[in-house]
Amino acid sequence: MREEDVVAFVGGFAGVELVTAGPDIGAPEVAWGDHFFYYDPERVLPADRRMPFATIVVKDYPGFDTASDLDRDGVFRVNMAVGRQVFEELFGYPPAAQAEHHGDHDYAALDRVVPHPLYATQGWASVLNPGAATAGRVRDLLTGAHARAAARYRRPAG
Asked: Could you read off the pLDDT of 71-84 as tens digits, one per residue?
């Protein structure tokens, strides 16, 4: 899967708003080119209630997010909010136990589902350059992340 393939796949889900970070939206320069996928079919969620269910990150964030070595030519990371249950099914331990398992994963390996290097404790997984080994699984995980976001959106507040 190329970056454009992931954008087209996720962008094809109902109710998805795609935001690509750039100077036109006032995003910090380090985020330019990254994609954020929100479930907001009516485009009414205030900024403080918007949380992406998936993202694509195309470069390292110096001093913050460098474990995936995204500054390699052509490397991008697909990040997915898979939730606690799916996270545990994928990795064999709950997100809360990530700290003790952090060293078990190669966050710079291509085409491998791994916990997100920073947001695993929130139930996020990631894949660098999904390919033959992970493309189908990534599609399934993105579909599930979208379904979870849609269910949260429909839940009444309070």
From this structure: 999 999 999 999 99
Could you give the number of structural domains in the chain? Answer: 1
DSSP assignment string, 105-118: --TT-BT--EE-TT
Which CATH number covers residue 16?
A: 3.90.1150
Task: Confirm if 56 and 35 have CB atoms less than 8 A apart.
Answer: yes
Question: What range defines the domain where residue 122 resides?
Answer: 3-154
**Contact present, 148 and 142 (Cβ < 8 Å):** no
**DSSP calls for 57-74:** E-S-BTTTB-TT-TTSTT
% helix, strand, coil for the chain, step of 5: 40, 20, 45
pTM above 0.90, yes or no: yes
